[in-house]
Amino acid sequence: MSETAGKKRKVSLTMRIFIALVLGVVVGIAMQGVSDVAESYIKPFGTIFLNLIKMVVVPVVLLSIMQGIISLQDVKKVGSIGIKTVVYYMCTTAFAVTLGLLLANLLNVGAGYNLGTEELVYEAAEAPSFMDTLVNIFPSNAIQPLASATMLQVIVIALFFGFGIIVAGEKGKVAKDVIDSFSEVSFKVMEMIIKLSPIGVFALICPVVASNGPAVLLPLLKVIGVAYLTYVVHMVVVYSSTVKVIAGMSPVTFFKGMSQAMIFAFSSASSVGALPFNLECTQKLGARKEVASFVLPLGATINMDGTAIYQGVCAIFIAQIFGFDLTISQQITIILTATLASIGTAGVPGSGMIMLAMVLESVGLPLEGIALVAGIDRILDMGRTCVNITGDAACTICVDSMEKKKEARRA
Fold first, then answer.
1. Most CB atoms within 10 A, among 42, 205, 210, 313?
2. What is the pTM for the complete model shown?
3. For 124-148, what is each residue's pLDDT tens digit?
């Protein structure tokens, strides 16, 4: 009896992460006057936790994609899943940036904002050309991408070696067993690190709140409000409808099952960092491991719905405060640029800035406007990362359901 009661009293990891998030906000507000203390003595523990996550992410992505490909045992099947995944991601990203533009226009996100724009300075990082991006996807050696965590290149390595093991047939069996063994070890290491997530979440969120208190956020509250409203609308409308229509899953079941990954993504602002949580949550929701192991790492790299919303809202905000009136054709250019720029954007904190610079340049808006939102970028980044990883999960559930239906028809 006492053992049963003890099990009932045990607080779930999701609840512990949420409690850590709330405590981080409360302590952060209390430490606004001494934010340097939070930055110096609390943030390092968050950094250590993120470092541990990043340490295990590369082996998890490499081995899980290879394991997924090998278990599918058919190069054509991998291609079928890949095409469905990319089409889903591109469509939802285009819808996301359109929604961001629409709500930002309707709510006049930049109206009434006054700031001496002559004081703004922003040095844009040079965005790579399309051909450079294409070339950079394919690594010149197999070690450097693993060391630098260049996720698209890691995915390419996993694809080629996974296909190689399938084609090798009986001679590839030893390699398959090694991959299975190392994959299991990586997931056990991941589980150990995930247990530390409440400490990591607290240490990550507390300095953000301490440094960006209400006094700093109030002038830009409207931008934050419009962005977060769009994040919520996109998740509720797009992800609810796709998992319901395509996979026949209740949206309530989906979001409840995703809560742990969403809370961590919000706290860490890292799509790649949230990948281990996402793998666990989607499999609990019924997605097969081989599909989740392929779709999610790909999504952590190329699916940027939340970032696309951020581009749309910020572009309208910057245009309005500088007195620019964007035409329909210019806004269509923003949609196309933001959708295409999402390919190859790394799933790490702050990656939206280069994309925003590309979007602003595409329609002739001043890059100095980025300095306006740079101060609240971390606040916006937390929300958009949460959207990004939820989109990855929705795609996984939908693609897995479509593959199951296709297999049932063949059977």
1. 313
2. 0.74
3. 555 556 677 678 778 899 999 888 7
**Residue 316 neighbours by CB distance under 10 Å:** 28
> Position 283: which residue type?
Q
Q: Which of 109, 122, 142 is nearest to 225 (CA)?
A: 109
Distance CA 21, CA 44 (A): 17
Q: How many residues does the chain have?
A: 411
Long-range contact pairs involving 178-182 (C-beta distance under 8 Å, separation at least 24) = 179/63, 179/66, 179/67, 179/70, 180/67, 182/59, 182/63
Average pLDDT over all residues of the chain? 82
What's the CA gap between 330 and 142, in Å, rounded? 41
pLDDT at residue 228, as a whole number = 95
- 247: DSSP letter: T
Q: What is the pLDDT of residue 341?
A: 66
* H or E segment and range at residue 49: helix 43-72
Triad 371, 374, 376: Cα angle to 5°: 135
Minimal CA–CA distance to 290: which of 41, 49, 80? 80
Per-residue HEC secondary structure of 308-326 comes to HHHHHHHHHHHHHHCCCCC
Burial letters for 261-277: b for 16+ Cβ neighbours within 10 Å, e otherwise?
bbbbbbbbbbbbbbbbb
CA distance 200 to 219: 30
3 state SS of 143: coil
What single-letter DSSP state applies at residue 348? S
Cβ pair 317, 109 in contact under 8 A:
yes
**Whether the predicted pLDDT of 382 surpasses 60:** yes
- pLDDT of 234 > 90? The answer is yes
Evaluate if residue 5 carries a pLDDT over 60: no
